[in-house]
Amino acid sequence: METSNKRLLFPLLVNHPHFIYLDSAATALKPQCVLDKMNEYYQLYGVNIHRGVYQLSYEASLAYEEARKKVADWIHSQEEEIVFTRNATESLNKICLMNAAMLNQDDEILTTEQEHHSSVLPWMHLAGKNQCRLRYLPLNESGEITVEVFKNALTPKTRILAITYASNVMGTITPLSEIIRIAHQNNILVIVDASQIVAHQRINVKELDCDYLAFSGHKMYGPTGIGILYGKSKLLKKLDPIEYGGDMNDDVDLHQVTIKPIPHRFEAGTPAIAEAIGLSEAISFLEEQGMDVIGKKEQTVHQYALNLLSQIDDVIVYNPKAVLPIIAFNIKGVHPHDAASFFDGNQIAIRAGHHCAQLMSKWLHAPHGTLRASLGLFNTKQDIDKLIATIQEVIHFFKGA
Questions:
Q1: Helix/strand/coil for 293
Q2: Same structural domain, 350 and 277
């Protein structure tokens, strides 16, 4: 599926030829191949899985489990370590609730102000119920998480670290390998939110050695409604499900149930079959495009944007050190929502607000949040030129400059 114009791979952009999409950090657009693969399931063998003894059910079950293998291979895990969920939010909530029993009163949960709400709110709620202490790692002057700060934050009561792999506001990448090594030396369980990095870099959970990891399919050019919960098999086998129902049990008597082995014990009810198949195709799409090629293209456009933005006095860029192609900025004296509405008038989709990370907005002293331009593989320097021109229009309209 080679084309020099990557826009042609995405039906939404084909149908809206003048539309500039700069919100891939919220959700990535879906290429035609992903839509085709999901439609193929619905049109050719769109029946339920694992339960039917007829041929089409076997084909659907096979495609669903092949999708699990595809995800496992993509992140270098075992198939039984991959649990399909609705999204990263559900994955992170399940990890929290299923590990609640390990926390006693006065135990500590470490997290950071970089976190997406999905990564911090479950632990905040659990800490309140279990009378645990939720603590935040201080960020450095650039808003980054450092190994040294993590070392200094540890106490004998630290039990869990809930941490992002990459910030959806700052675009920075956490030095996880060293942090996880130190955490395990201190018998700390590590839960990683990898949602923001999956479209930009390959993940190797075996090298990373995290205990649990979560991400969503829709961030990586896959469909909405499908997420991944990765957990080390030795840990998943110790956990009880928090959802009970169809297809997660082997035998049911009047007063007891025998549940299936991992991962199916955590997938009660009819799952998102088409979405899992679509996610598998999205991974194939990323492989075909080449992660290195995608990264180089995104970084070229990203740096081009940063250089131009730095020349505008009325623009504040909060994350000039971003590694991922995310730019958090504001136009001085203009509410981000007002600016975003102006952008929309020029057919530019850009995020405005807190990005489900209010703690980071407050750390940045940006009470109304920020504008956020996030790039995908289809974005070009021409998109940035139009962004810059629109910023100049915003400044002139609101400030008369």
A1: helix
A2: no
